[in-house]
Specification:
Order of helices and strands: EHEHHHEHEHHEH
Strand content: 5-15%
Shape: globular
Distance between the termini: 18 Å
Bound molecules: BIS(adenosine)-5'-tetraphosphate
Oligomer: single chain
Low-confidence stretches: 1-10
Number of helices: 8
Helix content: 55-70%
Largest sheet: 5 strands, parallel
Mean pLDDT: 91
Strand order of the largest sheet: 2-3-1-4-5
Structural class: alpha/beta
């Protein structure tokens, strides 16, 4: 395992923001295996619940399959218990709404820490659609079907783009160009984290 990048010598909490297919999960997975971060992905948590057929999974599936966001209270509860004890965390896909972002600030305030960086993955929409269609062919994800993709893009514009503005107001956003190969994006990301 590589050396953990520490900001100001303390533990690190980072948010990855960006539209569906921007590569948040891909890059978070790489940083986790290479640099020892803890990867908290609400998308993975939801897929895990759905895969195990739990009551929570059945509830979230009705939103997920259509490309809708799962209700804020549900996702906030999922992240709360995992966040409390975790250090050097990448939050991937959370927050996705302004109420989720406000809840995260509140949770971090209560445990006496703050966010170190918010990384915004910027990619144009044609490339996003191309990536998600390829992923559908490989992984068969229901939310990567064309209608669900279009809907997720609309939901992103309406619900998640304002989260970028929420963090921009606090001067907390670092935008990276997420176009290019996975390794090129990784190198830009590592540069942004230093
Ligand atoms: P997520 O699991 O977060 O998925 P995503 O936004 O589609 O993908 P991501 O940006 O991580 O892209 P990836 O690396 O996989 O969310 C799924 C659903 O869960 C949501 O629609 C919602 O229903 C629910 N949900 C999750 N969090 C929620 C929340 N906080 N509140 C409410 N609901 C929530 O990359 C995509 C593809 O591109 C991959 O195939 C990858 O291999 C490829 N790729 C990546 N980087 C590339 C590159 N540089 N070049 C070419 N291809 C690349």
């Amino acid at each position: 395992m590589g050396k953990l990048i520490r900001l100001r010598g303390i533990e690190v909490r980072i948010v990855f923001l960006g539209p569906p297919g921007a590569g948040k999960g891909t890059q978070a997975g790489m940083l986790t295996s290479e640099l020892g971060y803890v990867h908290l992905s609400t998308g993975d948590m939801i897929r895990d619940e759905m895969g195990r057929g739990t009551e929570l999974g059945k509830f979230t599936q009705t939103f997920y399959d259509k490309g809708d966001l799962v209700p804020d209270e549900t996702v906030i509860d999922m992240i709360k218990e995992r966040l409390a004890g975790a250090e050097n965390v990448i939050l991937d896909g959370f927050p996705r709404t302004v109420p989720q972002a406000a809840s995260l600030d509140d949770q971090l305030y209560r445990i006496g820490v703050s966010l170190d960086k918010v990384i915004y993955f910027s990619v144009d929409v044609d490339e996003l659609i191309d990536r998600l269609e390829k992923r559908r062919d490989i992984e068969g994800r229901v939310d990567d079907e064309p209608e669900a993709i279009r809907h997720r893009m609309d939901v992103y514009d309406r619900e998640t783009a304002p989260v970028v503005d929420y963090y921009r107001d606090g001067d907390r956003v670092i935008q990276i160009d997420a176009l290019g190969t996975i390794d090129e994006v990784r190198d830009r990301l590592i540069g942004a984290l230093k």
